[in-house]
Amino acid sequence: MKKYFRYVPDFDYVSRLPESKISDYVKVKNLFKKGKLRDDIFQDVTVFTKYQIVGDARPDNVAYDVYNNADLDWVILLSNNIVNIQSEWPLPQNDFDKILLERYKTYENLYGGIHHYETTEVTNSQGVVIVPAGLHVSSTYKTEYYDFYQDSLVTVQDAVKPVTNYEFEEAKENDKRNIFILKERYLGIILDDMQDVMPYKNGSTQYVSETIKRGENIRLY
Questions:
Q1: CB 3.0–4.6 Å: which of 181, 192, 197, 212 could bond 51 by disulfide?
Q2: CA 137 – CA 117 distance, rounded (Å)
Q3: Residues 50-73: what's their mean pLDDT?
Q4: CB within 8 A of 220, min separation 6: which ones?
Q5: Counting Cβ atoms within 10 Å, is residue 78 exposed (0-12), middle (13-18) or buried (19+)?
Q6: Contact at 8 Å (CB) between 143 and 129?
Q7: Which residues pair with 117 in a beta bridge?
Q8: Residue of 192, 220, 206 whose CA lies nearest to 32
Q9: Any residues with CB less than 8 A from the CB of 15 and at least 6 apart, and which?
Q10: What is the maximal distance between C-alpha atoms in the chain?
């Protein structure tokens, strides 16, 4: 992310440190000035390719894999509108297992406790799907349908399976592994956009320069 923060402008914040003078400021990065992909690119699926995160790969690992440049990890995050890496990016396996054990208290509850029940796929004699897999249902769920080709009413009572707490959490975590990658030929556009949108505009509130804004110091009044 260090290259991303080169684009982020600074903000002179009034110092609250005990030893500071009344007119002292502390320079910080303005994290409210957030970059994003412009809408005509973000909403165009043709400029992205699908990618699956493997193992404990971090955003910088993915950036190096696809762009040969780990400093472009911020492009990976912006392309997927990821703000909070802790909750929106797959956790390292050890951290994931530790969090789940803390959440479910015991291994027995984690691996053996039932979180919910789901349907398994039900098809008729011609292979047409009657009930899709993955629907949340009760443990006693059953379904009936008329099979036109067999001229009979079919009752299915075993089209349901339990999903353990671990299986539920693992499926949610694995969903985070499916991301989109901005095609490399569009990188130049994104870099140019960042250089254009990040600087402060002359005349804006608290403007000092393109790279600095300064907060009002009420301690001076």
A1: 181
A2: 6
A3: 98
A4: 22, 23
A5: buried
A6: no
A7: 137, 162
A8: 206
A9: 21, 24, 25, 26
A10: 89
Amino acid at 106: T
Condensed to tens digits (0 to 9), the pLDDT of residues 109-130 reads 999 999 999 999 999 999 999 9
**pLDDT band, very low/low/confident/very high, at 1 (cuts 50, 70, 90):** low
Q: Provide DSSP, the chain.
A: -HHHHHHSPEEEEEP--TT--TT-EEEEE-TTS-----HHHHT-GGGEEEEE--TT--HHHHHHHHHS-GGGHHHHHHHTT---HHHHSPPPHHHHHHHHHHHH-SHHHHHHSEEEEEEPPEE-TT--EEE-TT-EE-TT--EEEEETTTTEEEEES--EEEEEHHHHHHHHHHHTTEEEEE-GGGHHHHHHHHHHHSSPPTTSTTEEETTEEE---GGG-
Q: Compare 215 and 93 and report the one with higher pLDDT.
A: 93
